[in-house]
Amino acid sequence: MPSATVRVRVPAKINLHLGVGDLRDDGYHELVTIFQAVSLYDELSLTPADELSVVTRGAPGVPEGAANLAGRAVLLLAEHAGRHPGVRVEISKQIPVAGGMAGGSADAAAALLGCAHLWHLDLPRSTLVALAAELGSDVPFALTGGTAIGTGRGEQIAPVLTRHQWHWVLAIAGDGLSTPAVFGELDRLREQSPGPRVGPVEDVLAALARPDAAALGEALGNDMQAAAISLQPSLRRVLYAGTAEGALHCLVSGSGPTVAMLCADADHAADVAARVAGLGVCRTVRVVNGPVPGARVLGA
Ligand code: C5P
């Protein structure tokens, strides 16, 4: 008998550019961002069960059941497809929780894809993406992966062609940051003084087209970085450590507190990772590359 369990692997994202516009009437900020999916993955297994349950391994404190965004994804797809949401979801987490790497969004994207597979739903990709956008701004990108430009509140995705692999060190902090809190802090800081904004997104797009990591480093930028540092001042030390230990450029990923350090190649990344790890400025470091594909059913 073949196993009824479906397993899905889904990557984390970093933001190579994050331009934050004004607060909209719906409580979201208008964004222009460039996402890149990187080789740090959560894995979900979905098994038919009498009722919905969501359990997480490797991340104490993550909500269970329907309070988890992956649980909400199961309920949303069940409602859409007229199915009973009886699924046991087990999440093995590698993506840091509240780390600015869209881990919860990744799990939701994986749950959507996994349930569609489990229930043999032949849904058009556009339907899955629309359901993903209902769940959260970063969920459509987690389905798509690769490198993409996101607009609107981040949920409108268009692929960006880049023929190169980029090498990153991720410095992962012990404490997470709440995304709404960092957006709120950015609004507060901007009320006090407008502050500088990231450069044109076109600079990043142009840099991505060439195999020149130094040029990409110069183009990277994140409007949320100052707000993340304001809420977690120890990030300054992490950013400084990455630069001092030879990374081409360091920036806070998304709303933080993960810091992404761009390196020239895989060997350089391993070297920077070892040096930064030795300084004890963050909980853990990981060497990753990107772009990688979005959520995928394993063994399908
Ligand atoms: O879309 P998602 O649920 O992931 O967003 C979480 C929170 O982050 C929102 O409730 C909002 O406070 C903030 N946010 C924002 N502007 C965006 C995306 C998210 O202000 N473009």
Describe the structure.
- By secondary structure, this protein is an alpha+beta fold.
- The chain is built from ten helices and twelve strands.
- The strands form two sheets. Strands 1, 2, 3, 4, 5, 6, 8 and 12 form an eight-stranded mixed sheet that branches.
- Strand 9 and strand 10 (259-263) form a beta hairpin.
- The longest helix has 16 residues, at 103-118.
- It binds cytidine-5'-monophosphate.
- Cytidine-5'-monophosphate binds at residues 27-29, 31, 136-138, 153-154, 179-180, 183.
- Beta content comes to 25-35%
Derived from helix and strand composition plus strand pairing, the structural class reads: alpha+beta
Low-pLDDT regions: none
Q: What's the helix count?
A: 10
Overall, the morphology is globular
Indicate the percent of residues in helices. 25-40%
Query: What does the radius of gyration come to?
Result: 19 Å
Quote the distance from N terminus to C terminus: 16 Å
Order of helices and strands: EEEHEHHHEEEHHHEHHEEHEE
